[in-house]
Write a structure and sequence with these properties.
- The complex is a heterodimer of chains A (270) and B (307).
- Chain A has 270 residues and is an all-alpha fold.
- In chain A, 71% of the residues lie in helices and 3% in strands.
- The radius of gyration of chain A is 21 Å and the shape is elongated.
- Chain B has a six-stranded mixed β-sheet with strand order 6-7-8-3-9-10, sandwiched between helices.
- The radius of gyration of chain B is 23 Å and the shape is elongated.
- Classes of the chains: A mainly alpha (270), B alpha/beta (307).
Chain lengths: 270, 307
């Protein structure tokens, strides 16, 4: 795969490799205060024992905190997949070969998906595995809008496994959107900025609690990107998860189809 | 193999970019074994035509047949037998030369062995730089690597768009020799686009000149050259005597320059023998008659006429 020969590809891995240990350090120094603050209400009524500041909790916090950063790192590479060929002039070398344009689009989407999966796995390794090594295991305490749930450590790992799987799916939507924008232009900067603009605008639209926006919210893919949290519910709301998964898959399909149509008709002038 | 077989058959091909009609009802044929020169000034529509032939861009109207098959319907099958350089050769800069060729070989539609890749790198003089990243290559080296990638899958038709651009005279000669070798020894059909007219004159047997997207003329290179007005340099023993003899003729007005024992005269091709006879009959000792048949002159007169 050509993308692994490019320096740009490793920026995301380096960024996570630097950022997550910094968060670990911050948690190591200040984490106890943070968890005391989070559980202050509970402590008034219950006696909490065990290691709550553990690798699972750190990983959960990090996954929450990186919802904007990871899409940016994904867009950085995915936006270059087609536009980069135009910038380098290598489109010509590819398109004059007996491979269909559809095959080119499929290979780019596969490359984007593989990169996304590897980056999210790297995040999982750095936050969860390294977190467990530094902070050890323990119960995971999770607060959502309905309840505060404490998971036994034997009940946590599979949830993280599925949550990271879901994160790969939602980040693949970002990568697909970047590739779609990438098929329109001959420079990767535009698609990176456009992808981030769409994500930020959608997140803002999702945040405003106004009647008209409430109606369009179900159609914004960003609304489903954080539904990995559903795996930290008890019991699991399987219908909600299925709805989010199908919505995200639908978006990937739409972005892929649009890219294929655009690229098939595109005049290669670079 | 049938030498009269059409390899490329272009019929009423047009391409419009918004308001600009880049190629206008262009028709021509390239036959098997041709080194076909595709000439035109900058902006004439050469690259646009080549991009349509290679399916990089779609045509607005008209048809392209290659190997007697419609490009639209048999694109993959046709491109398996076509090698090309389109404008400047661009590669993955961060990859070594050999890796670039390996990637392109994998999608060439034919089995390409490592041995073949090494042979081609040797043929284009890059044997010692196989593992160097392309970003360290000069323009000439990239151009040679471009030739190698075009030949990877041993195609029947080779399309070369300005292959000598940016090369030094030695590099230009090497490419010319390679084109002649591919045509004569390997029976390839070569479609050669250039604005360097002498390049076409030296290697092509047939050619077309286009301007503003339209065909100006198409035919055998030799025939097109012979049909034009030429210059002739007459070398004589006694220049003053020759000058005196010519003074009373219409040719005198056509003298372009007199230098040493040589007179250069603008003359119709058919009148060269008459000039020679007239000088000899009047006692002038003619030691040489050197016709200057420049495609450049022809090209300029044709395109100027069209403008």
């Amino acid at each position: 795969m050509k993308i692994f020969r490019k320096w740009r590809t490793y920026i995301g891995f380096i960024a996570i490799g630097l950022l997550v240990p910094l968060l670990h350090l911050a948690m190591f120094l200040e984490g106890q205060n943070s968890i005391d603050f989070a559980t202050r209400g509970l402590r008034e009524s219950f006696v909490l024992v065990g290691n709550l500041l553990n690798g699972y909790w750190i990983s959960y916090i990090i996954l929450n905190a990186l919802t904007i950063h990871i899409p940016f790192l994904i867009a950085l590479v995915a936006a270059d997949l087609l536009a980069g060929e135009a910038t380098a002039g290598t489109y010509r070398m590819l398109v004059i070969r007996p491979v269909s344009r559809m095959q080119i689009v499929i290979s780019k989407f596969l490359a984007g998906t593989i990169y996304t999966a590897l980056l999210v796995n790297w995040l999982a390794f750095m936050s969860l595995v390294v977190g467990l090594i530094i902070f050890g295991g323990g119960e995971l305490i999770v607060a959502n809008s309905k309840a505060i749930i404490i998971f036994d450590q034997s009940d946590v790992l599979w949830r993280f496994f599925l949550a990271y799987g879901f994160a790969i799916l939602s980040m693949t939507v970002v990568s697909s959107l970047s590739i779609l924008f990438s098929s329109l232009v001959e420079n990767a900067i535009g698609p990176i900025v456009s992808t981030m603009a769409v994500i930020i605008i959608f997140i803002i639209l999702s945040a405003f609690d106004v009647e008209i926006l409430r109606d369009i919210r179900p159609f914004l893919f960003t609304n489903y990107m954080l539904d990995w949290r559903e795996f930290f519910n008890d019991p699991l709301d399987l219908s909600e998860i299925a709805k989010s998964v199908s919505f995200l898959l639908g978006h990937i399909l739409i972005f892929f189809t649009a890219t294929a149509i655009i690229f098939r008709k595109k005049d290669i002038l670079s | 193999m049938n030498p009269s077989e059409n390899i490329i058959e272009i019929t009423s091909l047009s391409k419009r970019f918004k308001e600009v009609l880049a190629v206008d009802e262009l028709s021509f044929t390239v036959k098997r074994g041709d080194v076909f020169g595709f000439l035109g000034p900058n902006g004439a529509g050469k690259s646009t035509t080549i991009r349509m032939i290679l399916s990089l861009i779609s045509q607005t109207s008209g048809s392209i047949k290659i190997f007697n098959k419609s490009l639209t319907e048999h694109r993959a099958e046709i491109l398996t037998n076509v090698g090309a350089i389109v404008e400047k050769p661009d590669f993955y800069q961060y990859l070594p030369a050999i890796k670039n060729l390996e990637i392109l070989a994998k999608i060439s539609g034919k089995e390409v062995s490592k041995k073949r890749i090494f042979e081609l790198l040797e043929l284009v003089g890059l044997k010692d730089r196989t593992k160097s990243k392309v970003k360290t290559f000069s323009h000439g080296m990239k151009q040679r690597l471009g030739i190698a990638q075009a030949l990877l899958h041993d195609p029947e038709l080779i399309v070369l768009d300005e292959p000598t651009t940016g090369l030094d005279p030695q590099g230009m000669k090497e490419i010319r020799d390679l084109i002649i070798h591919l045509s004569k020894d390997e029976n390839k059909t070569i479609f050669l686009s250039s604005h360097i007219l002498s390049e076409i004159e030296l290697v092509a047997n047939r050619m077309i000149i286009i301007n503003r997207g339209k065909k100006i003329v198409e035919g055998e290179v030799g025939q097109l050259l012979n049909s034009s007005a030429v210059k002739v340099t007459v070398e004589v023993e006694n220049i003053d005597q020759a000058n005196r003899i010519l003074e009373n003729t219409n040719w005198y007005k056509q003298i372009e320059v007199i230098k040493g024992d040589k007179i250069t005269i603008n003359i119709e091709n058919k009148n060269i023998s008459a000039l020679n006879k007239y000088l000899v009959d009047n006692g002038v000792k003619v030691t040489a008659l050197i016709p200057i048949r420049s495609l450049e002159d022809y090209f300029l007169s044709i395109t100027a006429g069209a403008n």
